[in-house]
Give the backbone structure.
Amino acid sequence: MTAVTAVTAEVTIPIRWRDVDAYGHVNNAVFLNYLEEARDRLVGSLFGDRSWDFVIARVAIDYRSELNQDDREVVVECRVTGFGTSSVRTSERVFAAGGKLSAESESVIVARDPETGRSRPLTDEEKAILQRAIDGG
């Protein structure tokens, strides 16, 4: 299930057998996949086909509680928290079944020129879209 509002994308992701490590919990690296799924939904909802023009530059994760196979699924929320000349800051939260907070994250994505592969400034239109997302509509 996916829900997108002007501010937040919310994605429900099943915990897969491959996500769980030898300790019986979801491996820390898998959280990056969960975050990416929600971030991609948010950016896609804001920019449509142009969402491919953004690449990840930074991710910082704080793990709050363990996830395991018994949780069955996670809910990931992602929202825009700010933007600069060429970058967009997002905030993500990962919840286990029952609403238990499992991780919090801050990410930075950068607008990319597809021809040069280098960062590019956000357009005025992109900035307006981002500001509306921050303002809630």
The first strand starts at residue 2 and ends at 4. Helices lie at 30-47, 124-135. DSSP finds two helices and six strands in the chain. The mean pLDDT is 92.
